[in-house]
Design brief:
Length: 263
Amino acid sequence: MEIIFIFLVGTAIGSFLNVLVDRLPRGEGVFGGRSHCDKCKKDLAWYDLIPLFSFLILRGKCRYCHTPLSLYYPVVELTTGILFVLVFVFLGARIMNQELRILDYITLVYYFIIISSLIVVFFTDLKYGIIPDAIVAPSIFVSFPYLFFNHYSLILNHLLSGGGAFLFFLFLFLITKGRGMGFGDVKLSFLLGLVLGFPKIAVALYISFLTGAIVGCILIIWKRKRLHGTKIPFGPFLVFGTLLTIFLGEQIMQIMLGFLFPI
Ligand SMILES: [Zn+2]
């Protein structure tokens, strides 16, 4: 029952994240203006904006001009719903067995915020090649009080992890003259280090570079001629590596240590 509720809340948040994804890179106001069809500019009614449901009922087309709607909308809503459930299951499981404590609620809310930010970064970078400061900066700001009150003993670790990741990406940014990495990736890496701490940040970056290299190779082979000059954004890989590490970091570290030190 709780799972269904969390999923529905997640899809509703996802529908708001869609607005952020499309408006932040264009510098449009988030709260001003109603949602409208990009093609015929008709305002959408509330019943056109029910997460997932409206998309299915309209079979993915605008009610007025029947232009196919972007698949990004239901994908973002579904992804947010699923990730919210995962946060609840992975981080809330140990909470449900015990007395509910206020700090556990704060942890849950903190991760809902961070996951939402990462989803927006994933899709703005994928669609527009932009990682908005308006997402990364507030996430960094909420991380400080969270770490201070919940993980006081680890705060130095997380700060150094953020700083270390930042310097590492700054170095990559400078030696590639901004062609391999954008400065958005550099700022994002500070947030990721702050959230994950060491050694998890190393695991996340390793996964990011590995999946980035694999996907990059597949894309080059797949459409070999057209790739020249096209930049593959790295933000989505950083987000993917971070999400995987948030949920399965302990298990991945076990496996990696097993490879490094086989007994
Ligand atoms: Zn339309």
